[in-house]
Amino acid sequence: MSSHYDFKSIEAKWRDKWIKDKTFKVSTRPGQKKFYLLEMFPYPSGKLHVGHLRNYAIGDAIARRKRMDGFNVLHPIGWDSFGMPAENAAIQNKTHPHKWTVGNIDEMRNQFVKMGISYDWEREVATSHPGYYKWTQWIFARMFDEGVAYRKKSFVNWCAPCGTVLANEQVIDGNCWRCDNQVVQQEREGWFLAITKYADDLLNGLKELAEGWPERVLTMQENWIGKSIGAEVEFTVDGSSEKLTVFTTRPDTLFGATFMALAPEHPMARQLVGGTGQEPEVTAFINETLNQDSTERSGEGAEKKGVFTGRYAVNPMNGEKIPIWIANFVLIEYGSGAIMSVPAHDQRDFEFAKKYGIDIRAVIVTEEQMDGESTSNLIEDYAILKEAYSGDGIMVNSGQFSGLHNRREGIEKVAEYLKEKGLGKKTVNYRLRDWGVSRQRYWGSPIPIVFCDKCGVVRVPDDQLPVILPTEIEFNESSGSPIARSDAFIKTECPKCGGPARRETDTMDTFMCSSWYFNRYTSARNDTAMAAKEDLDYWMPVDQYVGGIEHAILHLLYSRFFTRFLHDIGIAGFQEPFKRLLTQGMVIKEGAKMSKSKGNVVSLDVMSDRYGTDATRLFILFAAPPERDLEWSDAGIEGSFRFMGRVSRWMEGQMGAIKRGGEAPAGLDGLPREAADVRRAVHKTINKVNYDMDRFGFNTAIAAVMELMNTIGAARLADDPASTAVTAEAAESLLLMLAPFTPHFCAEMWERMEKPGSIVDHPFPTADPACMVEDSIEIVVQINGKLRGKFSVPPGASKEELEKLALANEKVTAHMGDKPPRKVIVVPGKLVNIVV
RNA sequence: GCCGGGAUGGCGGAAUUGGUAGACGCAGAGGACUUAAAAUCCUCCGGAGCUUAGCUCCUCGCGGGUUCAAGUCCCGCUCCCGGUACCA
Question: Which nucleotide is nearest to A706 (CA to C1')?
Fold first, then answer.
């Protein structure tokens, strides 16, 4: 290693200097534009590995470049430090979650410093710090006052191993997002946030993000919100005054409804059956279904099952009586938990009807069928068919609506009719559910609520915030949260009447803590507000957000919701928190995402000890474009390491010329040939690197710099003043272009070159067009589109000249033989294609 | 099923608007330096064929099409990855 630059002492020197000098302390110089760059803050789980590094290396390259471009850059970091792993680790290691978390933060902070990421450490935040969660609670209080945070009893996702409720977004394929164990449905009371009130706003807001966000994230959010437009239709229960409401996106098929189906959880289910003699069967069916777990009931290929209630509903369109069934495929959470079933035109209804021998009645036929002579036997047709027809067509067997095209007129006309008769109305349904935020865990922000026997549910007043999470507490393996057993925490006074009251012992979902943290960085030490208005107005929204695709729905949707809420109550002057989003791919090792739990991590400490932080950062940016997954290769990093050695050796070898420097003449005129070639390469590279960095093509930017290094390393420039100036310019440009990627090395070489000032604030180089002028360009000759020859011409040669030269080219004439050219296409500066 | 994204050498990946496919790097082969090794430097490196200083043909998942010209545009498939799903 002796022939390599001494990266250990160089990196130590500069990282210490940057911390000591507070080099990256945010400034708000007037007259400069702001740029807020943010990487998703980490959960302090322990040591960082090279998989984590990718996120921060990308962010730092952007931040450093923007800083060189003269922006006032806000580039902060913090810790998403509440959460389950701290509790699990505490139980395992007989320590306390707080101690474990703080220890990990210290360790990871040191690693960030060692990596030389350009953070302003004075703005560091941790969500588990009372100075932070005071404001999480404050936001909850605002939501409570506005009716956005509310309490209800409902079926919730319960993860037994974690001992807590989960939000819908945290259930992945029926399993817990954290521990991967099966989630079951349980009826419970808890706190919910009315994100569904914002469903339409969140959907419409996506349009505004179309330019800056990856399309797939937008579609994922769109699908998650799942808007569908349809109608609510009221059916009366035959022989009773009870009514049942169904939601349908196909009111045009109402005449084809041959039965109705309720979810087993439907409140009317047990009531309806009274006195019909069907009670034993129905009760047994409901109990059986409710005891099934979600995959058994609704997983892939789950069988459709149901039971007849013995009662009938009246179809409001034609007064027909249709049987009411209870069916396992009807979901209580969606729509009204009851459906009208049209077997002819819905595949699920079709399967169910076939199984239980219910009528199948066609009410839509294709336009081709309509042209045929008869539609009378379509009912029989469906009885032998294997599937429902869910496409569009002409309405038949539909009373006054027969003959209409369902999509073009039918849906609208039927909806209008229902409205007129008071039988229903047009409605919109969303797949999105309200966000359950109660967690039966200890390590999270307390919910600022007390329960008073006299006053009921009472919000803790703002001047009593934060409700401190006690850290002096018995923490052991027994199930449930320790604060739920702590009288000292639970027993309190009612803020309203002063009487005895109990504190809420559920804590908040940690995603609440991370749904607003980007605001806090703008005003991190503020103890009178979540953030000062002027700080929010100046810095927000985030100009560029960088993070993993795994948060496409969870964190990114929740943050958008919080921001809209804060906007509506007048705190935020913006509706979208993140203007642009870059989702970096995963780091893969041995076919799996690099993670501690998979045991395939590559230690960041080992890599930076062996190759240095700079080379590690350089490699991770070079190996693949940021959005794509990256296969880690220990061998690959050697290449980046060798490249840095080459740059270092070349610079040391040229140091005399570099220090002498001098003004290069304008453009390329008057430069010796070799020097002109080098200078042209330098400026063309600058041009490409600027272009690539603007589109986050770090891999190609780095490749271009490597290519430049190969060119200037091979060149042998003379000793004349002009050539010396070109060498110095090349060295300077090379360092400036590498500075966002390998900051320690570049700072060191900058100093050795005796350049004034700091490289971190030096303007990023821009290309001079006069230095990119070519003295000759290569023209390709094709015959019938195939490459046949090449020749050089001065730039600006005319079409006629190019054609003449191409036709005169020996190889071309050899190929053409005696066939005359039929057509000649000339693309000036590029090629000539001869068609024979 | 539906919605996104993708498929280029042994490997990671390049190829701004259709215009020289394989930049840059890794791995590999040969050589220089060295007592030796490491480090460094130089050369070669998609495939096949031939009358082998060179030349020809093939090659960007497969099959068609548009065009003077297609990795790039259009149509039809195959496979892989991600998201989502009894959502009425």
Answer: B24
